[in-house]
Amino acid sequence: MLEKLNFQRLFFQSGNFVMTLYKTINANPFLRKWLFPMFTVMVYIFLSAARLSGSSIDALSPTKQGLIFGSPKLIRTDEYAVQTPIVLGQAVHHFPTNLVSGLGEHSSIFIWLIPNWSWSTIFRPWLIPELFLGINNGFGASWWMLSLLLVLSIYFLVLNLCNRIDLAIIFSLGLLFSPLLQWWYDNSSAPTAVIAMSVFTLLFYLKALKATSKLKTIIFLILSTWS
After folding, report:
1. At a CB cut-off of 8 Å and minimum separation 6, what does 223 contact?
2. Are 108 and 118 in contact (CB under 8 A)?
3. Are the CB atoms for 130 and 138 separated by under 8 Å?
């Protein structure tokens, strides 16, 4: 009987806490706007800190020791047999700007899928974690950063256009989990990167048009050019 009363008390206390939290968020426009982005960033940090990724690289391992959930997608040879090994090779050689592969030596400055220590990497922010965190900690961070950039770009663009938080969340998550982007996803997914950075370009340009000062206009135009 006592356990039943404690459970009921805990249930009602939890319900009161949730309702209080909901009312607090609903009454604060700032929290309503930034709650979803903050939650998204927290999920990104957790996945990166846990060194998780969606790579199918275990398809090359007979023991599958690195596999936590699901199974390697054998059809994704473009990821586990090409892209990821190249990234690992770059890490072994300390991310050089020249890549020796295939038919000869190539400049990795102009191969935008490959992390390297060059000026061009500043325009590919999803590659930066691997440079500073190393391949063990940075691979997962780079893998999920594309998802983070895509979700945030779509969310803030929709919010800027119609000021609807619910639609912004639906559109951002809907595009992230669309078959096209999930099929081609890896730590340098071209479709995801192109869409995310293009949306940021449009978003910053719209922000520049609505800016209330010349300084803000210049800042947003610089960010639009960068993205």
Report:
1. 200, 204
2. yes
3. yes
- Summarize pLDDT for 160-183 with one digit per residue, the tens: 999 889 999 999 999 999 998 988
- Helices 190-210 and 128-162 pack at an angle, to 10 degrees, of 50
Angle between helices 128-162 and 165-176 (to 10 degrees): 140
User: What token pair was written down for 175?
Assistant: 């595009």
94: three-class secondary structure by DSSP: coil
Residue pLDDT, tens place only, 66-84:
677 767 777 777 787 788 8
Longest dimension (CA), the chain: 77
pTM, 2 dp: 0.84
Backbone angles phi and psi of 110, in degrees to 5: -100, 0
